[in-house]
């Protein structure tokens, strides 16, 4: 604790408070408990989730993309796999030192700059197929909410107005600081205006000519940390199920949010579960950050790859793990995604009679059951999507091996287990936000009919070429196949029959 005489800071032994409510059966890593704990929500029909939104002073980069895509995947799982009614809230920081500085450089009002980059942010999320939050709260539209929060902290003796006319949270008046992350044992020395260097601004006094709002403490604007606490608490109340963001926000942002919220609501715990996504790094580089000037914008990334491929890359690593972004990694993710699309097509080709295979229904059924059980075990283990991807890869490899054991003397009996395997793969990926049923979902009916006619015609010509041993005709057929492949349509020849995807 902090003492005003000797200024010694000793880290307390914090205990995570297990909430009462509905046990989801999921284990998640809890940074307060320092281990995986049961995910228990107050009410399965109203799960509260708050995500720290962007400070809109510049374009969002792929580090932001990996965070929001990973959180979107978890939200989809909670909704569609675990059948929870998740209500999501996000803030938009539309006034900040960086916004003011960038606006001054661009010689535009801060409000205009923030509005521009917020619109770009939503456009990027839509392009990534990230579901928008149910409730969006902008700082500039909720000043009274923020000021009321600060006033209550002052009234409770947890905050004070300093000589610089700013208001600070008094860390020394709060017993449970350093709950989310160990920040060391030595006490910081007091600063010129603050009681301790650990104290953080709740209300920042305005500089001459700077945009500001009137308050009982003088003109100014909110500090960064108070925004999220005030806005989240205003909508979701004094206890929140899940609060999410990147790992870089755990300290000081989330630590300070938890401290001031617990102090205001007089509770030992404000957020029951903090979910933090790992950093995204460029290959052979450090963490991606605007301040390091090493960012790649989301729009630039999507010129080189697709949103489903990037989502697949996010799935291939655990949400808490560091991701290394490179062209090779994206290519690998694209190939994995294409492999899944091809597998679903192969299963359909088998059903349609294009593929003849000696399939043991019981063997494939057993593979499907085992894979489904492994997928469930991985998902309840801190949303381990990388393990799910490994399981899907193993299932596809095994079933493909069976499907390509071609026989010409087989009867027309089909193994329904093959379709069950295809359904498991496509439904699992669909929960993650990836649709591999391209033929059924993204192609209009007329286009399908045209492709069927073209495919049948080419195969008829090809059979004539084979019968007459006419190399010129066969080369023309190959050219049609190659030209179609260049625009994303794959034709596969299976003896006297051909299929397309």
UniProtKB/TrEMBL annotation:
EC number: 6.1.1.16
CDD domains per record: CysRS_core (cd00672)
Residue ranges of domain Cysteinyl-tRNA synthetase class Ia DALR in the record: 376-433
GO biological process: cysteinyl-tRNA aminoacylation
Catalytic activity: S-sulfanyl-L-cysteine + tRNA(Cys) + ATP = (S)-sulfanyl-L-cysteinyl-tRNA(Cys) + AMP + diphosphate; 2 L-cysteine = S-sulfanyl-L-cysteine + L-alanine; S-disulfanyl-L-cysteine + tRNA(Cys) + ATP = (S)-disulfanyl-L-cysteinyl-tRNA(Cys) + AMP + diphosphate; tRNA(Cys) + L-cysteine + ATP = L-cysteinyl-tRNA(Cys) + AMP + diphosphate
Cell compartment(s), UniProt: Cytoplasm
InterPro entries noted in UniProt: Cys-tRNA-ligase, Cys-tRNA-synt_Ia_DALR, Cys-tRNA/MSH_ligase, Rossmann-like_a/b/a_fold, tRNA-synt_1_cat_dom, tRNAsynth_Ia_anticodon-bd
GO MF: ATP binding; cysteine-tRNA ligase activity; metal ion binding
Broad class of where this protein is predominantly found: cytoplasm
Protein's UniProt keywords contain Cytoplasm: yes
Cofactor list: Zn(2+)
Keywords attached to this entry: Aminoacyl-tRNA synthetase, ATP-binding, Cytoplasm, Ligase, Metal-binding, Nucleotide-binding, Protein biosynthesis, Zinc
GO CC annotation, single: cytoplasm
Domain of life: Eukaryota
Keyword Oxidoreductase included in the entry's annotation: no
tRNA synthetases class I catalytic domain location: 43-332
Similarity-based family: Belongs to the class-I aminoacyl-tRNA synthetase family.
Function summary: In addition to its role as an aminoacyl-tRNA synthetase, has also cysteine persulfide synthase activity. Produces reactive persulfide species such as cysteine persulfide (CysSSH) from substrate cysteine and mediate direct incorporation of CysSSH into proteins during translations, resulting in protein persulfides and polysulfides. CysSSHs behave as potent antioxidants and cellular protectants.
Protein name per its UniProtKB record: Cysteine--tRNA ligase
Gene name of the record: AUGUSTUS-3.0.2_00823
